[in-house]
Amino acid sequence: MISPTRIRAVAGACLLLGLPAVTQATMTLPFGDIFLNGTLDFHYAADGSARIDPVLYVDSNETFGPGALATVFAPPDTVTGATGLDYTYSVTGVGTDALEMTYAIGNQTGLTWTGLRFFVDVSGDPFDDLLEIPIIEVGSTDSSDPAGWGVDDFLGGDLFLTDILNAAKLDGENHCAGAACAAEGGLEWDLDALPSGKTWLISVRLSDDGSTLGNVALRMQLADGVGAALDGQLLSVSGRAVVVPLPGALLLMLAALPTLVARNRASRRA
After folding, report:
1. Which of 123, 120, 142, 258 is CA-nearest to residue 202?
2. What is the rounded CA–CA span in Å between residue 14 and residue 97?
3. Is residue 1 part of a domain?
4. How many helices and strands in the chain, by DSSP H and E?
5. Positions of E strands within 139-224
6. pTM of the model
7. What is the mean pLDDT of the segment spanning 71-83?
8. Going by fewer Cβ within 10 Å, which terminus of the chain is more open, N or C?
């Protein structure tokens, strides 16, 4: 079952939001990349535990016509057999304050695919006694920013099953209204058309140092069972999406290159 969410911000952002100052921590994958499809359990700050689930919605292609397919692929690694679209992903930043997921949807089918939507659902541990205080920040957005977002109380609604899987659309509402809840949050990117020979690249940052990608950020502060904020324990979820002419596998290699170079330098010093 999909779970609720958490978040954290830098001292400057915390001051703007009236939140406590942040202490540094690192993002880790306690179970590794066990799902092999971009779905990951991760830890953040001192007590934060959460999960990210990617979902791809595909409307149709130029042969089928508009709305002829209208299928949600969750997780999106199921997409290739049904559509011929490629799906690859990479993870960087494990052990740092910013974990980055890079998802690539590649089209080498010879057809234009239309009505694509990519979702990330971030949810925490529903079995613990901690809550989250969700805050949405939306600045001046452009085409690379999420087109939609949503926040739900896991115990009173279900953003993953209802909004993402059934409606394939986030409603842009914070159903926790800024109060502590068993929070679950999502971001949505929309793409009208993906021509053949192009790759849709979605980069998602999960951080506990307040750093973000783009102009939309979902921040959730960890709170105790009665809703009191836990000092410095927040998670930030953000991201950007672009369409590029490179194959997804090459893009993922380039995305991982800075991390590989850093590791090589560290091994040489050792």
Report:
1. 120
2. 16
3. no
4. 3, 13
5. 148-153, 183-194, 198-207, 216-223
6. 0.83
7. 92
8. C
